[in-house]
From TrEMBL:
<dbReference type="GO" id="GO:0032217">
    <property type="term" value="F:riboflavin transmembrane transporter activity"/>
</dbReference>
<dbReference type="InterPro" id="IPR025720">
    <property type="entry name" value="RibU"/>
</dbReference>
<keyword id="KW-0472">Membrane</keyword>
<feature type="transmembrane region" description="Helical">
    <location>
        <begin position="45"/>
        <end position="63"/>
    </location>
</feature>
<protein>
    <recommendedName>
        <fullName>Riboflavin transporter</fullName>
    </recommendedName>
</protein>
<keyword id="KW-1003">Cell membrane</keyword>
<comment type="function">
    <text>Probably a riboflavin-binding protein that interacts with the energy-coupling factor (ECF) ABC-transporter complex.</text>
</comment>
<feature type="transmembrane region" description="Helical">
    <location>
        <begin position="112"/>
        <end position="133"/>
    </location>
</feature>
<dbReference type="InterPro" id="IPR024529">
    <property type="entry name" value="ECF_trnsprt_substrate-spec"/>
</dbReference>
<keyword id="KW-0812">Transmembrane</keyword>
<keyword id="KW-1133">Transmembrane helix</keyword>
<dbReference type="GO" id="GO:0005886">
    <property type="term" value="C:plasma membrane"/>
</dbReference>
<dbReference type="Pfam" id="PF12822">
    <property type="entry name" value="ECF_trnsprt"/>
</dbReference>
<feature type="transmembrane region" description="Helical">
    <location>
        <begin position="83"/>
        <end position="100"/>
    </location>
</feature>
<feature type="transmembrane region" description="Helical">
    <location>
        <begin position="6"/>
        <end position="25"/>
    </location>
</feature>
<comment type="similarity">
    <text>Belongs to the prokaryotic riboflavin transporter (P-RFT) (TC 2.A.87) family.</text>
</comment>
<feature type="transmembrane region" description="Helical">
    <location>
        <begin position="153"/>
        <end position="178"/>
    </location>
</feature>
Length: 193
């Protein structure tokens, strides 16, 4: 925290607020279960990471989920869904950030966003199998699915949903990135000066 300037802290606060509002504007995708909602709240976190570094992106993810938990609550009483959203966001922005740092071109950003989408889809599938779905069944007092049922649910629902969500976020971000690239580079240069 000591390394973050006042401008960075204010920017992280503003981007966290924008991310929280975007989180409220979620919507379901018809072929997937209704509780899987798409939102674009990871995009401000990605912007924060690209300008101020990965810690800033993680902070935006954390703050938006804390805000949402305290403002809207949780079905389970504990923030299982918010923890899943936080982890999914981090799994999207960190690979995107690190790959883009190596390939600072438009093609590099496209490759980075695809990698972030794939990373989020695969790791969230594994984490849902071992952590998040068992936590939901525990806290909601629901009967647990069998191993094959859980695998089928993840392969047919969660894996493709997270990939589609990543692709949608990538398309929207690339539209923004085309216009914001110069401004973001100026912010990075200002930060390092």
């Amino acid at each position: 925290m000591k390394n973050l300037s006042v401008k960075a802290m204010v920017s992280i606060g503003m981007l966290s607020s924008i991310a929280y509002v975007l989180m409220l504007l979620n919507f379901p995708l018809p072929p997937f279960p209704k509780f899987l909602m798409v939102d674009f709240s990871d995009l401000p976190a990605l912007i924060a990471a690209l300008i101020f570094g990965p810690a800033a992106g993680i902070l935006v993810e954390l703050i938006k989920n804390i805000l949402d938990y305290f403002m809207t609550g949780s079905e389970t009483g504990v923030p299982v869904g918010h923890a899943a959203n936080f982890v999914a966001g981090v799994l999207f922005i960190l690979p995107t950030y690190y790959i883009y740092q190596r390939m600072k071109t438009k093609k590099g950003m496209t490759f980075a966003l695809v990698s972030g989408s794939v990373s989020m889809a695969i790791f969230m599938s594994v984490l849902n199998y071992y952590v998040f779905l068992p936590a939901y069944t525990l806290f909601l007092n629901m009967p647990a699915m069998s191993g094959p049922e859980t695998k089928q649910f993840i392969v047919a629902g969660i894996l493709p949903f997270n990939f589609v969500k990543g692709v949608l976020m990538s398309v929207v971000f690339m539209l923004m990135f085309a216009r914001m690239k110069t401004w973001m580079e100026r912010q990075q240069n200002y930060k390092s000066a």
